[in-house]
Amino acid sequence: MQISGKSAIQELIDKLGKDIILTTKEELIPYMKDASYIKGKMPLAVCLPENADQISSILKICNKFKINVTARSGGTSLTGSSVESFDGIIISTMNLNRLLELDLSSRYVVCEPGVRIDILNAELKKHNFFYPPDPASSRASTIGGSLSTNAGGLRAVRYGATKEWVLGMEVVLPTGEIIRTGEYTLKRSAGYDLTALMIGSEGTLGIITKAILKIEPLPETTAKIMGFYRDILSVGKSMDTIKSQGITPIIAEFMDLPTINSIKKAMGIEVPAYTQYLLMVDIDSAPEALERKLASAKDIMGKFSEDVIVIRDQKRMDEIYAARKGAYSALLEQRDNSNQLIVIGDVIVPSSQLADALGQIEGYARTDGLKTTLFGHIGDGNIHANIFMDNTEEGRKKMAKLQMDIARVAIRHRGSVSAEHGIGTEKNELLYEEYKERNSLYTLEVMRLIKKAFDPNNILNRGKIFYEPD
Amino acid sequence: MQISGKSAIQELIDKLGKDIILTTKEELIPYMKDASYIKGKMPLAVCLPENADQISSILKICNKFKINVTARSGGTSLTGSSVESFDGIIISTMNLNRLLELDLSSRYVVCEPGVRIDILNAELKKHNFFYPPDPASSRASTIGGSLSTNAGGLRAVRYGATKEWVLGMEVVLPTGEIIRTGEYTLKRSAGYDLTALMIGSEGTLGIITKAILKIEPLPETTAKIMGFYRDILSVGKSMDTIKSQGITPIIAEFMDLPTINSIKKAMGIEVPAYTQYLLMVDIDSAPEALERKLASAKDIMGKFSEDVIVIRDQKRMDEIYAARKGAYSALLEQRDNSNQLIVIGDVIVPSSQLADALGQIEGYARTDGLKTTLFGHIGDGNIHANIFMDNTEEGRKKMAKLQMDIARVAIRHRGSVSAEHGIGTEKNELLYEEYKERNSLYTLEVMRLIKKAFDPNNILNRGKIFYEPD
């Protein structure tokens, strides 16, 4: 690999020029990390192309030399999917960062993969529109990465995950061909849905160089209900009841006491002394109907909690939204020492299973003896269990056991081991477990067949999704 | 083919029993037609399995003998995708017709492919929920067929097409393996989205034996605005303006005068004498805000039309909805003779392109000299041009030219040659044209690679989507 690696890098430089190929150690080190606890290998080079043609040239060379390639944009992956697992190069798409077109009537925006989600939404807001998927990392994360992981976020309870918001793409295949998938239209029935196949494929099938995204008018008004709870079962039951009565919040988040404490100041709220859990439910509505809709949700929450308050002030709501989005970063402050790492879990169950599943997850977090905090997008059943892990072999083992225990709770409750973060190199085993438990391991085989059809030399983001020994 | 065909049928009978294998001519003839003008070949046999295991057995036998297999449920395809194009058998999934589970909180229903859409919705209505995709054929069409073609329908302007409403599936692959895709959860990021890949694949990749469908609470109230227009450009401009001002109707349909005339009685409306086109826009809302929302849309329509009326009575609205759904059948009455066939076109363009595209389509319909009527789900840009075709070689040629002319209008306006009916055997050439014009023929190659990975012997619904000479 090293020798062909060197010739490949030389050919890349010859073809594309030194300026967009980084090769010195200091330049490469930052690309060994993403937002997860996983450390990648030092890449042989990092390419910074500016267009699809350059990416095509890079992939043709790498395919010829069978050099691994990992695509990376914002680098906010929480499962190690944007770092190299083997010897190989990284292609950063951060220089493809233009908003190309906006069509309000047709409800689409066209942009490149390096556009950060908050930047896109700041532009759309000028027109009273928005792009709904909003991973907590939206300040830093990009369209490219969020498409590649089918990112969810706070508003997925209402608007669904990323897959529901992509109409088409331009993609460079590992063999260098540039293809178009999908169209500028809101629906289409014209052959296989390659757009959908690319979403959540974590850079293993192709590199996205352009995306046609669906946009939505901003909701007219919203207000936030906060309920304070003594126990987690009541939180789960509240959500289950709200959903089965036909109420669909625009946001529904829960968090445990350690999480509340870490962002209480930023949220600027008083928390009753008995509180163990907080449930926040945002309701959107035409202004004329807001109070009636709030009352329905508030009544339900009031049956399971002692105190329920309503916040109507937009600025206060924005602050709380921002504080919640910063919860993962805030938890870093609560580590026992700076060597400790936080593993952010990401399982999901159907709403009706929430109470039972949350109870069991809380139980495992207690009995496995690792400091763990819970929060998540409870409206769609997404639970993040954040495990504080000692960075030792013993610590990793304990973490892996708790993570598997929680994954099994999700699987037993008809859920999945990954809701919105993807598989990366972190969850290959958990994914295998999910399909094994479902008696459907052949599903993974079919995925491998597709991978092989796209990428016969297995150069794209090798080691991600599928377990592969070095 | 004939000899191996015979041995294969014998093996099917030996394995599954005579009762579920039809082989006499009288039994087979009905399976040579679907709802389109296309006539299929007489199948060698029709299998009526009752579960996935039986389908797996059938596919294993057919794969061994390399016998073509076409899956069929309601048989309402408008592009010939549910009839045999070669020598082969048909598997009807109409005996897999159970509603298996309903979970309101988690917002899903589990059902088998033979369930008719209206039957499903009648059940869901009892709980104030519904399954949004509503092809005009929903009385007869099934979950299996509508998933296989990514069906749209009247409500797709608000709720999107079928692909946005499927969480998971059980699928029998052409090689006989039974796999599960997706999960019971509202989002997931766990490997390739095989569920999405199956949707719209028209039975070429596998046979769906179970589906987990997302459901939605019924809208609180709706009302219908009807605008009468002198010209089609004004219809297009109305829709474009409504959408760009952030209004998303729950239904938005247009129709030309011949279509109006064919369903006027069923709709029970008075039509001003100058009328050439009708635009119907349904607005849904919380009851408190309905009048305000109606006024916004009505104002816009009033700028482009002379008369705009509002219908608030639910029974009247239901009648009009049913009449519109019957438009295709009603047009059959307007044929010059019973040998004439109607080819229902199905292109789509982005909203902002509607006025211009509709104008051009109307122009071609006039100059190509074939009786043609226009209607469609204009809210999402979907235009059905219904061509009255003489069933002669000359007639077919003229029809094919007009269909290609209209397809090219759609392609030039950033649209697609198929919105919601699929490709079948009718549109292989149009699909090729679309990718050729986009300079992306390799997209079709990638689809072929996927087909090969799933179906190495090319036994499933051969000849559909991809052009293949006999």
UniProtKB/TrEMBL annotation, chains A, B:
Q: What Gene3D superfamilies does the database record attribute to this sequence?
A: 3.30.465.10, 3.30.70.2740, Vanillyl-alcohol Oxidase, Chain A, domain 4 (1.10.45.10)
MF term (GO), any: FAD binding
Pfam families annotated for this entry? Answer: FAD-oxidase_C, FAD_binding_4
Q: Which UniProt keywords apply?
A: FAD, Flavoprotein, Oxidoreductase
Swiss-Prot/TrEMBL cofactor(s): FAD
Coiled-coil intervals: none
Q: Which domain of life is it from?
A: Archaea
User: SUPFAM superfamilies per the record?
Assistant: FAD-binding/transporter-associated domain-like (SSF56176), FAD-linked oxidases, C-terminal domain (SSF55103)
Q: FAD-binding PCMH-type domain location, by residue?
A: 38-218
Family of the protein in this entry: Belongs to the FAD-binding oxidoreductase/transferase type 4 family.
State what protein this is by name. Answer: FAD-binding PCMH-type domain-containing protein
The organism's lineage is: Archaea, Methanobacteriati, Thermoplasmatota, Thermoplasmata, Thermoplasmatales
